[in-house]
Design brief:
Length: 332
Amino acid sequence: MRERTIASHFARAALGGARRLGFDYSSLLLQLGISPELLDEPRARLAPEQFTQLIQGLWLALDDEYLGFGNAPSKPGSFAMMCHASIHCRNLEKALQRGLLFYSLFPQGPRLTLSREDEWVRLSLADAQLWDPDHFLTESLLVIWHRLGSWLIGQRIRLEQVTFSYPRPDHGAEYDLLFPCPMTFASDQSSLLFHSRYLHMPLLQDERTLKHFLERSPADLLSRPDDGDSLSSRLRRLLSRDSANWPDLEAVAAQMHISPQTLRRHLREEGTSFQELKDQLRRDIAIYHLGRADLSLQQIAEQLGFSEPSAFHRAFKKWTGLTPGAYRAQEQ
């Protein structure tokens, strides 16, 4: 219920390769309960489970883990074989090197390299030659390699910087869910920067845990936004503990041992506000329940703290461009 929803942009972008190849994906969308109305509404959101299923469905339908965005397809199973090749390495550095070596065996695939910069490590992606107008493959590869590395060592790798070889895109506001760290656009390369201490950490995963991991990955890695350790992420976690009793800003500030003024200022510096975070959480909880038959619209409105269902209807349409009833109808 507390999982962040996925902007409809990413679903439209993921389908770009299929459109380019002339593949008719209408039956796949129908099977997943994703309506054209949802895809066409810029403010609409998808549940993480829906997005995972969409990516997995496209892989199978297109027979390509690059979804039509690479210079050559990557056969389904390639990512799994890379993971099997890397899982027995003694530390993260060896695992990453082996993983990158595996993909280098396919010369038409995207080039990834690992390099040292004093105490830092940079994982770089050569994305200039990709057919990737919405940058979906670039975003996906950077996210997947970061989260795969974190999973292998059993702890989140803190990113110090992410660079992109393209200007900030229109959906750049969503990037804080993908890369919760300083970002640089229009750089000379797309890359992740993190501390070298992670390279020496032992792998905490094995063949048994890998089998479970591969049932949903790497699609699952893309659909689980990284909360990171920003103030807004910590605040979201605090608010989500009890969505039935929403604390006000003063109460939250007291729990976080800072003044309300300081809390407002820090959130403003992160490009958000207390009300915006609360609305995002309400939106995501509403989408969770609308995708199931567990609560009526009135019960959802009450759980989110709306005194009248009509107020919930207005708010939800403002957040997503669809009414709660229309959203529930397209989920069935």
